[in-house]
């Protein structure tokens, strides 16, 4: 069976990471896989050698969207994949538009909360999404956003995590654990007194609120630090905010990291401050590593976090409540451990093969429906 994945880029975003994982695993299972990038030529994530990567701008020799889509249509008609899988609203809408009248099923993967799309995206999605053979979303909340007709052909599939979360941690996995060879000897927790966050430095992620919350935390617990991994246009504003709050020695913005799992394992708490999400990959990885979590109330969090049981959920833009939640976890080691153990137990839901099994079942069902149709 031949599968064609379509994306804008293969740069370091969460959607690109998920697509690369699914594409690699499907190719390893014997599927013929191609990835088509509509825009950028940069490839950040590892892609199997057996997967063909096609850059439309290079092949079509143009940046003109209409000309790229015309080339893309002709190319799909020539290569005749069994299924086209398009990630993100800006990609699946143009894919559906380009392939109108072409008898190849398109699976549209919704990667963010559609309620926060701009008007143009909402209109184009409303017109074009019904043309999808099937729709994949990350949470029940997102599924319920759509009309009943769309929901009938929508499947919730979580994001797979980096398989390294299942490896032994760099440091003792739990505070208060004991050495098996010396039962009376309590193992020192070697992780850093720091709160970690991971995400692009974009307004959507609202790291401003997180930094302002941490400034309050730092007054009571000056030995703790905040590190925010990611890059983006908000860097300058966030650096100015850190300077203004006089916490430059307590907050760091080191940029992107290819070793995020290691960084998570070195930390004692994870924070997400987003205004909206599809389902945060970083949040899922933090849960699987076994970190206690403080997160805003965005799509996906209430499916993963039971407030007060394995994390704290706070309202969007609420720096005061976020600060109180951080302080509560800093001051209560037993609570941190309770949250950590409950989160670690959820990891099996995000194991790569389990997620890819769901994608494989969906692809096969879409192909069967086409044959019957």
What fraction of the residues are assigned to beta strands by DSSP? 15-25%
Class from secondary-structure proportions? alpha/beta
Query: What's the N-to-C terminus distance?
Result: 18 Å
**How many distinct helices?**
15
The tally of strands reads: 13
Mean pLDDT: 91
Write a concise keyword list for the protein shown above:
alpha/beta, seven-stranded parallel beta sheet, six-stranded parallel beta sheet, 15 helices, 13 strands
Short description:
The protein has 373 residues and is α/β, with parallel strands linked by helices.
Description:
- The structure is a single chain.
- With 373 residues, the chain is α/β, with parallel strands linked by helices.
- 42% of the residues lie in helices and 16% in strands.
- Helix 1 packs across helix 15, helix 4 crosses helix 5 and helix 8 crosses helix 13.
Draw up the topology in text.
Elements: E1 2-7, H1 14-28, E2 32-37, E3 52-55, H2 56-60, H3 65-79, E4 83-87, H4 89-98, E5 106-109, H5 119-128, E6 134-137, H6 140-145, H7 148-152, E7 154-156, E8 194-198, H8 207-220, E9 225-229, H9 235-244, E10 251-255, H10 260-265, E11 269-272, H11 281-289, E12 293-296, H12 301-304, E13 311-314, H13 319-331, H14 333-344, H15 352-372
Parallel strand pairs: 1-2, 1-4, 2-3, 4-5, 5-6, 6-7, 8-9, 8-11, 9-10, 11-12, 12-13
Helix pairs in contact: 1-15, 3-4, 4-5, 8-13
